User: Fold this.
Amino acid sequence: MIVTRSLTKHFGAVLAVDSIDLDVREGDRYGLLGPNGSGKTTLVRMLLGLVYATKGEIEIMGQPVPRRIGQVLPQIGALVEEPAAYPHMSGRANLRLFDAAGPGGPRRTRSQRVDEALERVGLAGIDRRPVKAYSLGMRQRLGLAGALIRQPRLLILDEPGNGLDPRGIRDIRRLLIELNDTGTTIFMSSHLLAEVELLCTRVGILNAGRLVLQQDLAELQAPTGRILVDTPDPARAVALLDGRVEGRAECGEGVRLVVRYDDPAELNVRLVGAGVRVTEMAKQRHSLEEVVLKLTGAGSDEIGGAGQ
Amino acid sequence: MIGVELYKVFRRARTWISVALLCSLPVGVAIFVAVTHLAPPPGNGTAFLSAVLQDGSLYPAAALALVLPVFLPVAVALMAGDSVAGEATGGTLRYLLIRPVGRTRLLVAKLAAILAFVLLAVVSVTVTSYITGIALFGSTPAAAVGRSGVPRGGIQAGGAATSLSGAPLTLMQLAERIAGAVALITVSMLGVAAIALFLSTVTDSVLGAAFGALAVLVASEVLVTLNAATSVQPYLPTRYWLAWIDFFRQPVFWRDIERGFGIQAVYVAIFLAAAWANFSTKDVTG
Assistant:
């Protein structure tokens, strides 16, 4: 769906994006993560033809960008940084103008398109207040409505959860999953790791303009071959397991041991059989947060001090 | 897209307020003159103002001469300066471009909206001042025409419905000449708009673009009156701004009018080309 090859962008002396090979497949829910200033927005802007690459190629739906951007964009809905609207007009008037500004779609079904888009993002009952009176969350929903109004095959969303409360975030997550189920590919950037973990099927991690990781989320979170065992009897457990214990940490009333073992059921039988009490047991998985923190440095908003 | 831009311009209160302000200045001046009957002597002050005491139907020309030097260029520079920079500042530029609206198409639509605004402003000033002129100063019937002024070449007036050169004008001729003046003024304002539009693609600051264009005009005005700058004067954007006055001579004095159209065409072409070249290759980061 989106393929880039050695995509690079210099702003003067600053290297914002450094030979990125992005691969977003059709049907993905792709989450792009990275600290502030790691190049997420510049990358998104290049995909949309707003910023021209210094080097490298972009292909979206098999078409070269920005050369064929005019054919690609009508099939894309996007949110780039904050949503924007004319503040003195109502949300509905803004959507009508936005719809009228570009190609496709007859005028006579415009009202219907606008109403449908507003309904999808939970703004069906919107009144005639001007956008300047909207809350941040309403503006975000309106921006999403703008992205959805053309029923795009690909959604490119920069921080779609911005300004939304927990319920709003859940609504949008459900909406995006529903759209994805009906064939829309979703490419989003976010700071919110938990949100990406809940929503995405594939992640890319940017650090200082480079794509340092691109993987299916399920693979990234696959069991590590270690089992976490919480026990109030750590000494007996260590003695029994003989060299398989790779780490230990205080944890509530007991101790959490990291045990190299393949089958948790078998390990449990062995421990309990030997009279070791077990309060909790789970396969160890890398959390997205661990992976992201390991792979990325401090964001550009952190200057010196205790960072890194 | 042009329709969308026109809708945006004409739905803004700002547009109508600036047109109303443009129209109200000549009305105010007319009231003062009508009450006091003190018009500047021929050849002094605003062109035509001395003539309108005798014939109100000439007042549109006086009104245009009132708004042309400052009011109109400020309004046009602000609007054209806002056209791209304002969208960039508000964040709507990126959404228009990914809608998608082609960059060239967007510029053309902006230009069309500016042209519509200029025409609206100039025509409104003309119409309201015609009505004001007739109401306050009356119109001398064409039969009374014949009193000839002394042609002295400068700006001065003879009698009623009379050209600057003293020969009488029929109502039809007057209408044609006002239309010609409106055309030249509109083209002159397009020159201003082209400069402001170019600057608007360079900076994301509306005020920067508008004031930049006004700075060009002020500099040009300074040089126009400077004898030492005679060699560059024919190429200055404001040099032939007042050439439309020549439409009211009998016969029409075409030389400066033609040069006025010519120089504005060159300015419009150059700055629109520059605006296009800059905008179509620019990284939109606003």
Notes: The interface with chain A takes residues 1, 3-4, 7-8, 11-13, 90-92, 94-102, 281, 283-285 of chain B (CB under 8 Å). Confidence is low (pLDDT under 50) at residues 141-160 of chain B.
